[in-house]
From TrEMBL, chain A:
The keyword Oxidoreductase applies. The keyword Transmembrane applies. Its EC number is 1.17.4.1. It catalyses: a 2'-deoxyribonucleoside 5'-diphosphate + [thioredoxin]-disulfide + H2O = a ribonucleoside 5'-diphosphate + [thioredoxin]-dithiol. It holds the Pfam family Ribonuc_red_sm. Tetramer of two alpha and two beta subunits. Binds 2 iron ions per subunit. This is Ribonucleoside-diphosphate reductase subunit beta.
UniProtKB/TrEMBL annotation, chain B:
This is Ribonucleoside-diphosphate reductase. PANTHER family: RIBONUCLEOSIDE-DIPHOSPHATE REDUCTASE LARGE CHAIN (PTHR11573), RIBONUCLEOSIDE-DIPHOSPHATE REDUCTASE LARGE SUBUNIT (PTHR11573:SF6). It catalyses: a 2'-deoxyribonucleoside 5'-diphosphate + [thioredoxin]-disulfide + H2O = a ribonucleoside 5'-diphosphate + [thioredoxin]-dithiol. It comes from Phytohabitans maris. The keyword Nucleotide-binding applies.
Length: 331, 766
């Protein structure tokens, strides 16, 4: 079984081909930080209202450490317990992607925050900005909850592991980052900070895949060990998501506190609740809030993009195309 | 909740006030709910917001409802127009002539146009159509407001309304008020629009109105290379898109006699070009853009094909340059025959870039003895296909067809060395002459009703369009001496079309149907024929263009003759031939089908000759993100009572495809296929069928969701065999996508139920 302790090295026969497919898909989606052009953002930053500038500086401070936390959990808590070589292939790939994200946000801060002192402060946000510190505490608590487990021998161990996995997929990547993306896309829908948005497009795509993989793992374990999933577990997950929503909502209070037209605090809360309900639905758990998505600009993220190449670099291509020259293929 | 007024006072937010502001604009928009806009606007507001923030938010709010009901697009546009109007009036401008005087005082308008408007103030003021702004869709008007309207140099406030803008553009190209008013009316009706540089700059102090510049490869020496950087920067500054060849520059490892060193090849030079293009910002409106052309026998071709890769050494990557292959037939023949292909250094065979057809074939075979390297033609072709799939770049353009089928290459010494940034312009150039083209596009959708094409209207539009495209040549400001040397001699223009898909939808013709192909061909014949007639008439009045004796037309061969095509309107063609024989032509080239990315948005139609990419998609531009929905589909579904929330949901889930929606009848699904769902062979065949009536070329994008080398190599071989001169982007789709955030989740337990083993429990498949 997937969570059995050990170091499975056997790729053939392959037990979990879906993990391998995800690994291959991820490779086709390789991008590098150099492709993102941030220079036009500087002019936009100067145009923002003080309230919007505050929003951006807080957001950037969150990005400064967010992906690093995820990467750490991946190495310290997830990789060792997912006992499938193809699953570990995907996790290795994910780790690379997290590293690219970290580099992207590093680049972003170096560009956005030219003052060295301010930049250091942004990177220290987990300590000195209370609204970010609270989110970090939430993450650390869940990292710590399984940190001492060397192997998942008991039923309780496995449930603890699953909770950590679900926390990082549903709450951190699936809610904290989704919240952050909403701010970016809000600005983008107003024609602001295209560089940040185009980098975020890539990051968002990666994060979606990370979350999907994590849910695949959950489903696989559910199939293999259905008795791990009981009412108590459901309650724990529900409580965890509710707490994550509160963490993110207090972050929103900080970001939007000065008044940003088009993004009210009430709408942001409704959005977070809506996303949380979706995460629960993906796990087959009843929703808590029943809130609808109030942000039309998020609906825009669900449809195909079409850029004019004069305007932006198009991000819709794949790498790793295969095949050989032939003249009678159908097209 | 309170808002702050412009005078600093605060007052409570009043829903009714917003409702009334919306109601002003909805007379013909029966599906719009003003109260909904008002309440939604208020929910996004914060306490103490300004009334200006409130106005902007109401525009945005209306725009966000477009996905449910496309009429909100018109509403948002009108709210925006009224916002812009307030801004202009707020600066003391109450009429067109006042606007021009004001903008002239700010240094934005040229002296001659200012004087012309002052002389004819009353007539021009009366010509402004108060209903003109009602025709815009939101995305179009937003683009106009953000990028096309003139702004105050200090305050950055908009100083002209959309209608004043179009009238100003018309005045910049007119000699009499009647001319100006006629041209203004045509543009204001959105049936025709000139290209962006004309819309940006006509009537201003820098009247650079051409879209495209084709710069010959620098000579194989340092001074010439740096001269080209300078020229490219100047052309780019004034909104031109640039094509530049690099074929004459020696490859990596070739000897440099002056210093007895070895060359580093073309890549470091292109890296410099890349940085130069990125540095020049086109008046803040868009980034500069250039495409580099290279012939596939150049020794650095393999590195060239990697310039856009996103991995590898950054010093050898050019993220801002577009790339195109300028391919001789000999290469394609060797690909087909699975032969060898020699890479030859241009310093060993400097004549090759100027030759085409048999002369090229002979010279190339002779030069192969000095080959730097030999590869398998298919391997190189395969790499080209891979570059296309991975970057969309490395466009396939065909040197021999481009030269063989051109009016300009009739006399020796005139060679087309490359195409332009969008692969629709094909003009001769040389070291001392940079080819220039002025463009404009007819909105075919505005010339078609369910009964068919309004041919008379189409002819009238073409005649006006050609007249004003020709006018640009004389009034244009040329940013480089090489451009100024070429354009008056050849006087080429590029009249294109957009909204072909709109015409097909209106007439209910599937894109790949026989009738669609016939229609597209006869429309193109009509456009080209009328354009030639107009040019012959201009030649009668003003004389033929100076290089006319060196054209094929002077020898009696018009473009369809070069193709061996048989036009349908035989009498008109015969009459035209007589007139051309008597007076010549004012323009060496007339028709080019440009991509029309921006002006199609302004006109609210589908781009050039392209099929729709999706029934529901978003556009991302410098102005923000915009949801685009297929209004033809919405109308169709409404008529059938199928425009429901669940159907909208399904369309969104399928990323704008309707193929999997079982509730829709077959004919609807067939008509509303997307570019990804159409056979690409049909796109190529459509292009080939109209090609005899396109004397330059067409920006033909091809679409493949999951490209493979096999499919691509078959497709581009077919394109070459069909005689196409050029192709443009290969569009493909990302391998992974973001998790949709706004369509309902399919829970895992439901997903298990949906299985082929228990179909009776599966609702999704029924």
């Amino acid at each position: 079984m997937l969570l059995d302790p050990g170091m499975d090295l056997t790729l053939r026969p392959m037990r979990y081909p879906r993990f391998f497919d995800r690994f291959k898909d991820a490779i086709k989606n390789t991008w590098t930080v150099e492709e993102v052009d941030l220079h036009s953002d500087l002019a936009d930053l100067a145009r923002l209202s003080p309230a919007e500038q505050h929003l951006v500086s807080r957001l950037v401070a969150f990005f400064a450490t967010g992906d690093t936390i995820v990467a750490n959990n991946l190495v310290l808590n997830l990789y060792q317990h997912v006992n499938s070589p193809e699953g570990r292939l995907y996790l290795s790939r994910q780790l690379f992607e997290e590293a690219v994200h970290v580099q992207f946000y590093l680049n972003l801060l170096d560009t956005y925050v030219p003052d060295e002192k301010e930049r250091f402060e942004a990177f220290a946000a987990v300590e000195n900005i209370p609204s970010i510190a609270r989110k970090a505490e939430f993450c650390f608590r869940w990292i710590d909850s399984v940190f001492d487990l060397r192997q998942l021998s008991t039923r309780d161990d496995r449930r603890a592991f699953l909770l950590n996995l679900i926390c990082f997929a549903a709450c951190i990547e699936g809610l904290f980052f989704y919240g952050a993306f909403a701010y970016v896309y809000f600005l983008r829908s107003r024609g602001l900070l295209h560089g940040l948005a185009s980098g975020t497009n890539w990051v968002f795509r990666d994060e979606s895949m990370h979350m999907a993989f994590a849910f695949d793992v959950v489903e696989t374990v559910r199939r293999e060990e259905p008795d791990l999933f009981d009412a108590e577990m459901e309650q724990q997950v529900t409580r965890m998501l509710a707490e994550a929503v509160e963490c993110e909502a207090q972050f929103a209070e900080d970001l939007l506190g000065q008044g940003v037209p088009g993004m009210s605090l009430a709408d942001m809360r409704a959005y977070l609740e809506h996303v949380a309900d979706r995460r629960l639905a993906m796990l087959g758990i009843a929703p808590i809030y029943g809130s609808k998505n109030p942000f039309a600009f998020m609906e825009l993220q669900d449809v195909q993009e079409l850029s004019n190449f004069f305007e932006r670099r198009v991000s819709a291509y794949q790498v790793g195309v295969t095949g050989t020259v032939s003249f009678d293929d159908d097209f | 909740m309170r808002v702050r007024k412009r005078n600093g006072d605060t007052e409570p937010v009043d829903v009714n006030k917003i409702v009334r502001a919306v109601e002003r604009w909805v007379a013909d928009l029966d599906e719009v709910d003003p109260l909904r806009v008002a309440t939604k606007t208020i929910s996004g507001l914060y306490d103490g917001a300004t009334t200006s923030e409130l106005d902007k938010l109401s525009i945005q709010t209306a725009a966000e409802l477009i996905g449910e009901e496309p009429q909100y697009s018109k509403l948002a546009a009108r709210l925006l127009a009224s916002y812009v109007d307030k801004e202009v009036r707020g600066q003391g401008v109450a009429s067109f002539s006042q606007c021009v005087r004001y903008a002239h005082g700010l240094g934005l308008i040229g002296d001659e146009v200012a004087a012309f408007v002052a002389r004819n103030a009353r007539k021009l003021d009366d010509a402004v159509d108060p209903a003109g702004d009602l025709r815009f869709e939101y995305f179009g008007l937003r683009t106009v407001a953000d990028r096309y309207l003139l702004r105050h140099p200090e305050t950055r406030l908009v100083v002209e309304t959309p209608q004043y803008w179009l009238l100003r553009v018309a005045c910049g190209l007119s000699r009499t008020p009647a001319e100006a008013i006629g041209f203004y009316r045509l543009m204001s009706s959105l049936a025709y629009l000139p290209s962006s540089p004309t819309l940006f700059n006509s009537g201003t102090r820098h009247t650079q109105m051409s879209s495209c510049f084709l710069v010959d490869s620098p000579r194989d020496e340092l001074d010439s290379i740096y001269e080209r950087y300078h020229q490219v920067a100047r052309l780019s500054k004034f909104s031109g898109g640039i094509g530049i060849s690099w074929t004459r520059i020696r490859g990596r490892g070739a000897l440099i006699r002056g210093t007895n060193g070895r060359s580093n090849g073309i890549v470091p030079f292109l890296k410099t070009l890349d940085a130069g293009v990125a540095a020049v910002n086109q008046g803040g409106r868009r980034k500069g853009a250039a495409c580099v052309y290279l012939e596939p026998w150049h020794p650095d071709v393999e590195e060239f094909l990697e310039l856009r890769d996103n991995t590898g050494e950054e010093a050898r990557r050019t993220h801002n340059l577009n790339l195109a292959n300028w391919i001789p037939d000999e290469f394609m023949r060797r690909v087909e025959a699975d032969g060898e292909w020699s890479l030859v250094d241009p310093s060993d065979a400097p004549e090759l870039p100027d030759l085409w057809g048999e002369e090229f074939d002979e010279a190339y075979r002779a030069a192969e003895k000095k080959a730097v390297k030999t590869v398998k033609a298919r391997d190189l072709y395969g790499r080209m296909m891979r570059t296309l799939a991975q970057t969309g770049n490395g466009w396939m353009t065909f040197k021999d067809a481009s030269n063989r089928l051109s009016n300009q290459t009739g006399a020796p010494g005139n060679t087309i060395h490359l195409s332009n940034l969008c692969t629709e312009i094909l003009e001769v150039n040389s070291d001392g002459e940079t080819a220039v083209c002025n463009l404009g596009s007819i909105n075919l959708g505005a010339h078609v009703t369910a009964e068919g094409v309004d041919w008379e209207k189409l002819r009238a539009t073409v005649a006006t369009a050609v007249l004003f495209l020709d006018r640009v040549i004389d009034l244009n400001y040329y940013p480089s001496a090489q451009a100024a040397a070429s354009n008056p001699r050849w006087r080429p223009v590029g009249l294109g079309l957009m909204g072909l898909q709109d015409a097909f939808f209106t007439l209910r013709l599937p894109f790949d149907s026989e009738r669609a192909r016939e229609l597209s061909t006869s429309v193109q014949e009509e456009i080209f024929l009328t354009a030639l007639e107009t040019s012959a008439e201009l030649a009668r009045e003003h004389g033929a263009h100076p290089a006319y004796p060196r054209t094929r037309a002077a020898g009696g061969d018009l473009h369809p003759d070069l193709w061996g095509a048989e036009p349908t309107q035989t009498e008109r063609w015969a009459a035209l031939r007589e007139r051309v024989a008597a007076h010549g032509l004012r323009n060496s080239l007339l028709v080019a089908i440009a991509p029309t990315a921006t002006i199609a948005s302004i006109a609210g139609c589908y781009e050039c000759i392209e099929p729709q990419v999706s029934n529901l998609f978003k556009r991302e531009t410098m102005s923000g993100e915009f949801l685009q929905i297929n209004t033809y589909l919405v109308r169709e579904l409404k008529a059938r009572g199928l425009w429901t929330a669940p159907i909208r949901e399904q369309i969104k889930r399928a990323e704008g495809s309707v193929q999997g929606i079982a509730d829709l009848p077959d004919d609807v699904r067939e008509l509303f296929r997307t570019a990804w769902e159409l056979p690409q062979r049909a796109l190529i065949d459509l292009a080939a069928a109209r090609a005899p009536y396109v004397d330059q070329s067409q920006s033909l994008n091809l679409f493949m969701s999951a490209p493979t080398i096999g499919k691509l190599s078959s497709m581009y071989l077919h394109a070459w065999k069909s005689g196409l001169k050029t192709t443009y982007y290969l569009r493909s789709r990302p391998a992974t996508r973001i998790q949709q955030a706004t369509v309902p989740v399919v829970a895992p337990t439901e997903a298990v139920a949906c299985s082929l083993e228990n179909p009776e429990t599966c609702e999704a498949c029924q």
